[in-house]
Amino acid sequence: MTPTGRAPRILVTGGAGFIGSHTVVSLVEAGFEPVIVDNFSNSQQSALDGLRAILNRDVTCYSVDCNDRAAMTEIFEKEELRGVIHFAAYKAVGESVQQPLKYYRNNLDSLLLLLELMPAYGVQNLVFSSSCTVYGQPEQLPVTEETPRLPAQSPYGNTKAISEDIIRDTVQAQVPIRALALRYFNPVGAHPSAQIGELPLGVPANLVPFITQTAAGIRQSLTVYGSDYNTPDGTCIRDYIHVMDLAEAHVQALKKLNEAENEASYDVINIGTGRGETVLTIINTFEQETGVKLNYTMGPRRAGDVEQVYADVTKARRELGWTARRTLAESLRDAWRWQEKLSLS
Questions:
Q1: Which residue numbers delimit the NAD(P)-binding domain (predicted)?
Q2: Could you say which architecture CATH assigns to the domain 9-189+240-272?
Q3: Mapping DSSP to helix (H, G, I), strand (E, B) and coil, where does residue 288 land?
């Protein structure tokens, strides 16, 4: 609690999105008061209904673009914020290749504005949504936070690397900001209530929603890109983490920043399970857990895909006291339950 007895108010940009909405739930459960900012360009208002059903109350939400300086300034003036979790960003890899300036403008400008407003209003703590894309195809696995960053495969990935550098340089200039960049691996699943989950607009860019939409008959078939990789079954390997585990990692990161005594600090932490799973393992596990057979075909490799990447999560355990608790089977069951609810609505 704050000295006034109020729950600490935390700005959650992109808080109606997939990871953001689940983090809002975890924040409330941990005694924080989330304040959502979302322009709904890549999310839907229905997420707020889902949050209401889970939390039995409304959450403050501003329908505002994070690049709108006047609107964001007004929110900082009004809300007496104690921290920021910054999710809001364009994230479609393919689109970023076609429209790089759109991605650089949006993803970088929104961060710059936050870094200007935070010290102006005495807000020190920042949790930044980064990505394992900064590692590219690493030479050694699993990747640690010391694994060298490689050139990004897309403008989207590059905005994450540049954003990390911007935060680091800002902190090194002794701006009073304490920041943690969480490098996510592959978030999957949904809240077990099936009230919120991944809600891609148009054709899904991620594997699991494509699987669930194929299982539901929304997509005719699923293409597995590449069957000749140097992996146990020839398909790509990724580190799939349940979105609620990821949400809880943000709460632990915020708590760590709250406990810090230094004025300015910056660090990066991998958030994954520490295990790599092939695409075919995901498909087979989904079929086993749901009893639904998937119509899928094997296709050629897709340009830009990394063969395999998964996390070393030692630092997350040590620094945050956090570890992923939910299984792959649980993640896929929750994702399917969410898809079934969508199909009925």
A1: 11-334
A2: 3-Layer(aba) Sandwich (3.40)
A3: helix
Q: Catalytic residue, from 156, 184, 229, 310: name it.
A: 156
**Cβ contacts of 166-172, under 8 Å, gap ≥ 24:** 166/108, 166/111, 166/112, 166/115, 167/111, 167/115, 167/126, 167/128, 167/266, 168/266, 170/115, 171/264, 171/265, 171/266, 172/264, 172/266
Domain ranges of the chain: 9-189+240-272
Pick from 230, 229, 236, 228: which is nearest to 207 by CA? 236
Count of alpha carbons within 13 Å of 193, Cβ hemisphere only? 13
Tokens standing for residue 18 = 């997939």
How many Å is the Cα radius of gyration of the chain? Answer: 19
Give the list of residues 6+ apart from residue 252 with CB closer than 8 angstroms, or none.
Answer: 320, 321, 322
Per-residue pLDDT of the chain (345 residues; tens, 9 = 90+): 565 668 999 999 999 999 999 999 999 999 999 999 999 998 999 999 999 999 999 999 999 999 999 999 999 999 999 999 999 999 888 889 899 999 999 999 999 999 999 999 999 999 999 999 999 889 999 999 999 999 888 899 999 999 999 999 999 999 999 999 999 999 999 999 999 999 987 888 789 999 999 999 999 999 999 999 999 999 999 999 999 999 999 999 999 999 988 889 999 999 999 999 999 999 999 999 999 999 999 999 987 788 999 999 999 999 999 999 999 999 999 999 999 999 887
CA end-to-end distance (rounded Å), the chain = 39
Please state, as a whole number, how many other Cβ atoms lie within 10 Å of the Cβ of residue 227.
Answer: 16
Dihedral sign of CA atoms 131, 137, 138, 142 in order: positive
Which two three-digit tokens encode residue 123? 């807000």
Number of CB atoms found within 10 A of residue 258's CB: 14
Whether 156 is catalytic is: yes
